[in-house]
């Protein structure tokens, strides 16, 4: 899009921010005084939680109030949002304003949730991962920012006649569904915080101001959504149907995140749960949309479900979606089957207990086979009209180029077997720190995925889906302790866990796999940025690995951080490590671009834009305490799409 149009969105956004500036800034002094927090100091902390060295280093200078709420992670996210809004054309004005207001709403909620260092305001309702901030802002803006970046990219494709209007409008609907999911979850957390504050007496106007500001954001978000839909559909049944569809996503997300946080206590933070929830809701919603469109085809003629919102998926996308959704729903049906058959009852006699476990495992494996062979393929064939059984289609696809695919499979199997065996023995017998041991797997991801992404991208898509299915099946077996593999898988996985994993749920391997796979899957359509599919591999396999290794061995200068238990204290991340991570990614990009040019890709992105993307993702890795394998690839991918 033209540059003048691209400049108008941030001007409108910042004008809205300016109207709220005075009251928003006046909020923070009252906010910190509410809990006896002095506005210009850090002496409110207990002696063991104060950074006395920093106070001495500052020579007793007063710390500005802004430093007490604008930490490094929030500063990086402001840069992330501003970069996306700067690139947005005027045709995406409503979406851009909605993202800006959503970020302000999430920022106010995160400050409200993290300001009290003595208690967790959500502890009455659910238990989050200890030792980290809530991460509400990061969780709330990551997926909407990604969807807006994709919309900007799709508009460039539309101007080049490489993208159809149907695909663009379907992505716009998904953006508003993503926005509604994150927005509804924020409203849910706002209600929880208000319930918590109602039990705490307040003598100032801070609580009332916070309530008014949050209600203003809620009203603005709802109003912008309604205006955008009314302008597009001119008030009619079609507009009502689309609004209900978007609201449905929001309601499901607000219920699902509470279920996740209660089912998996102390496993994830609020921001991580928000990212998972919004992603699952959008993915399930897309599957439901395709299924409903297939069942009720006559809705198209009635105008309730326009045909442009049903975009035909590729065979590989359909297979991955059906397999993933089916396996995610499988534990719910399995639990129901076990409850009906009475296999949750404890048996005291050892022989009867052994028979009980064998019957339980038989039911599990029989149900899993029925799901994979019958149920999921039936859905795939229904929504996509495969000319053969989907499993046979996969075999036909694999053997269509047997030399390339089988050679690649042999290379993967040999490399994975050698690396897993080697690192597993090291983890049991060596004193090497586990965090460094895990980074070797990040390097292995580069060696495994980069050749396939350049030479066989479609086969890599399918391989990622198969790996995700295997991971899901093994995690279900581990959690349910299904004989005979349950205990073995549990012992093996414990060798590679870290502080972010728990006995209930091991998520590190999922986050690494999805961090590498999602940018590739998202780039399956129109893509004029050749480095975008490599976002996960570059940021995790190279940037994160080099940052950890260099920071661990040579790091001296540490970043300051602000968290639930610290204000202006020192982080474990070092400046040397961050600089090494950013530099290594830039070097990898300079090496990768000539290789991509030999296969026909043309680099159409300015180097300054690439530098901003790499630096922003590197700083986010340095500052965030959230699950970096999940967030950094998505943020990096969003910035590469611009």
From TrEMBL:
Highest rank taxon of the organism: Eukaryota
One annotated GO molecular function: kinase activity
Subcellular location field: Endoplasmic reticulum membrane
Topology in membrane: Multi-pass membrane protein
InterPro entries assigned: Polypren_kinase (IPR032974)
EC numbers: 2.7.1.108
Transmembrane segments: 84-109, 130-153, 173-193, 213-231, 237-257, 264-284, 319-341, 362-382, 402-420, 440-456, 462-483, 504-522, 534-556, 577-603, 623-640
Signal peptide bounds: none
Keywords of the record: Endoplasmic reticulum, Kinase, Membrane, Transferase, Transmembrane, Transmembrane helix
Keyword Transmembrane helix belongs to the record: yes
Top enzyme class: transferase
PANTHER family listed in its UniProt record: DOLICHOL KINASE, TRANSMEMBRANE PROTEIN 15-RELATED
UniProt similarity note: Belongs to the polyprenol kinase family.
Protein name, UniProt field: dolichol kinase
Organism per entry: Coffea arabica
Taxonomic placement: Eukaryota, Viridiplantae, Streptophyta, Embryophyta, Tracheophyta
């Amino acid at each position: 899009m033209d540059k003048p149009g691209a400049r108008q969105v941030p001007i409108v956004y910042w004008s809205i921010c300016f109207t709220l500036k005075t009251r928003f800034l006046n909020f923070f002094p009252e906010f910190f005084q509410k809990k006896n927090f002095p506005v210009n100091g850090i002496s409110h902390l207990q002696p063991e939680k104060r950074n006395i060295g920093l106070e001495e280093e500052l020579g007793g200078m007063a710390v500005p109030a802004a430093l007490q709420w604008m930490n490094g992670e929030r500063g990086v996210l402001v840069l992330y949002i501003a970069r996306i809004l700067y690139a947005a054309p005027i045709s995406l004005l409503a979406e851009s304003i909605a993202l800006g207001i959503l970020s302000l709403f999430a920022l106010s909620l995160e400050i409200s949730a993290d300001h009290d260092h003595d208690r967790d305001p959500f502890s009455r309702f659910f238990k989050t991962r200890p030792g980290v901030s809530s991460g509400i802002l990061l969780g709330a803006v990551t997926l909407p920012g990604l969807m807006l970046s994709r919309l900007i990219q799709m508009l460039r494709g539309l101007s080049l006649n490489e993208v159809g209007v149907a695909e663009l409008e379907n992505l716009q609907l998904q953006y508003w569904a993503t926005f509604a999911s994150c927005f509804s979850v924020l409203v849910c957390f706002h209600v929880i915080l208000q319930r918590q504050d109602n039990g705490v007496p307040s003598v100032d106007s801070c609580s009332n101001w916070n309530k008014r500001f949050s209600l203003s954001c809620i009203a603005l978000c709802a109003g912008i959504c309604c205006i955008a839909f009314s302008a597009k559909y001119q008030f009619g049944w079609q507009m009502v149907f689309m609004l209900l569809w978007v609201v449905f996503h929001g309601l499901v997300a607000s219920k699902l995140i509470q279920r996740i946080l209660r089912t998996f206590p102390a496993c994830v933070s609020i921001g991580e749960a928000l990212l998972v929830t919004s992603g699952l809701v959008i993915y399930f919603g897309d599957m439901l949309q395709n299924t409903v469109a297939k069942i009720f085809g006559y809705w198209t003629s009635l105008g309730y479900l326009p045909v442009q919102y049903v975009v035909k998926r590729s065979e590989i996308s359909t297979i991955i979606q059906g397999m993933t959704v089916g396996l995610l729903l499988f534990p719910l049906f399995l639990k129901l089957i076990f409850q009906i058959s009475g296999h949750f009852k404890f048996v005291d006699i050892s022989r009867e207990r052994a028979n009980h476990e064998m019957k339980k495992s038989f039911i599990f494996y029989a149900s899993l086979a029925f799901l994979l062979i019958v149920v999921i393929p039936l859905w795939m064939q229904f929504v996509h009209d495969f000319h053969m059984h989907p499993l046979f289609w996969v075999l036909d696809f694999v053997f269509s180029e047997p030399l390339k695919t089988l050679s690649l499979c042999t290379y993967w199997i040999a490399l994975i077997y050698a690396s897993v065996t080697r690192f597993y023995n090291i983890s049991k017998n060596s004193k090497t720190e586990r965090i460094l041991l895990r980074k070797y797997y990040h390097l292995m991801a580069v060696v495994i995925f980069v050749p396939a992404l350049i030479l066989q991208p479609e086969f890599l898509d399918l391989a990622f889906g198969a790996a995700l299915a295997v991971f899901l099946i093994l995690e279900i077996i581990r959690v349910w302790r299904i004989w005979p593999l349950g205990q073995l898988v549990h012992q093996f996985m414990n060798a590679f866990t870290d502080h972010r994993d728990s006995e209930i749920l091991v998520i590190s391997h999922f986050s690494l796999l999805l961090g590498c796979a999602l940018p590739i899957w998202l780039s399956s359509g129109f893509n004029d940025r050749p480095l975008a599919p490599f976002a996960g591999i570059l940021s995790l396999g190279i940037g994160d690995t080099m940052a950890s290794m260099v920071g661990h061995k040579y790091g001296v200068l540490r970043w300051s951080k602000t968290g639930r238990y610290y204000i202006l204290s020192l982080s474990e991340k070092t400046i040397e490590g961050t600089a090494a991570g950013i530099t290594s990614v830039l070097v990898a990009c300079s090496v990768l671009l000539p290789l991509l040019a030999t296969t026909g890709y043309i680099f159409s992105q300015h180097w300054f834009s690439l530098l901003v993307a790499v630096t922003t993702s590197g700083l986010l890795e340095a500052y965030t305490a959230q699950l970096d394998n999940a967030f950094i690839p998505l943020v990096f991918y969003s910035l590469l799409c611009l």
